Amino acid sequence: MKVLLVEDDRSISGFITKGLKEMYYAVDAAFDGEEGLHLALSGSYDMIILDIMLPGIDGWEVLESMRKEKVQTPVIILTAKDGKEDVVRGLELGADDYLIKPFSFTELLSRIKAILRRGRPDTDVSIITVGDLTLDLINRTVQRNEKNIELSGKEFMLLEYLMRNGGQILTRTMILERVWGYNFDTGSNIIDVHINHLRNKIDRDHQIKMIHTIKGVGYALRSE
């Protein structure tokens, strides 16, 4: 999952970013309304967490502009403004939820999960299965042929991205942006290293190899 956090208080932003990354979310942070709106319109996010009191344009304008441009990414308003009229205004502008500061990270995380589930009512988003490979997003576990596989945080995020797009070719640029949050080529072999680690854990003891290299393009995960 990739989250855009628009929050000008850097201590709050750092707190949320750290917590989300520990839960294997990829996070982009913006610290003013203009930057937040630019990223919201140009990026590909599963969730946006939006403060209201921002430098430049405020969160209301960011949200209104997003919806006018047909950006339907779920939005959680995060603010100290707790008046009923503010809650109503946020929901009328197209927010999906409203969380008042101060807040607990556990509550924020539960709100995110609830909204993401509502957005996919016909599927169980907590379990992803490709062939005999299963990834549990809630318990953060991976199994192949019912045997547990221990993964690092980045390995888990990379495998989740591959499995969510099972059978599709994912370019190195797509993987760098989605898993590491980079929108440029780092010039390193970071993807190759993590792919090799996944292969050793996912494919090594199985006849059917699921992680495939598409020479000169990227990678794909296939069940056969």
Poorly predicted runs are none
Mean pLDDT: 88
General shape: elongated
In terms of quaternary structure, what is this? single chain
Question: What distinguishing features does this structure have?
Answer:
8 helices; elongated; five-stranded parallel beta sheet; 12 strands; 22% strand; alpha/beta
Description:
This protein is of the alpha/beta class and 224 residues long. Helices cover 41% and strands 22% of the residues. It has eight helices and twelve strands. The chain has helices at residues 10-22, 33-42, 59-68, 84-93, 105-118, 153-164, 172-180, 190-202; strands spanning 2-6, 26-30, 47-51, 75-79, 97-100, 127-130, 133-136, 141-144, 147-149, 170-171, 211-214, 218-221. The longest helix has 14 residues, at 105-118. The protein is elongated and about 60 Å long.
Give the helices and strands, then pairings.
Layout: E1 2-6, H1 10-22, E2 26-30, H2 33-42, E3 47-51, H3 59-68, E4 75-79, H4 84-93, E5 97-100, H5 105-118, E6 127-130, E7 133-136, E8 141-144, E9 147-149, H6 153-164, E10 170-171, H7 172-180, H8 190-202, E11 211-214, E12 218-221
Parallel strand pairs: 1-2, 1-3, 3-4, 4-5
Antiparallel strand pairs: 6-7, 7-8, 8-9, 10-12, 11-12
Short description:
The chain is of the alpha/beta class and 224 residues long.
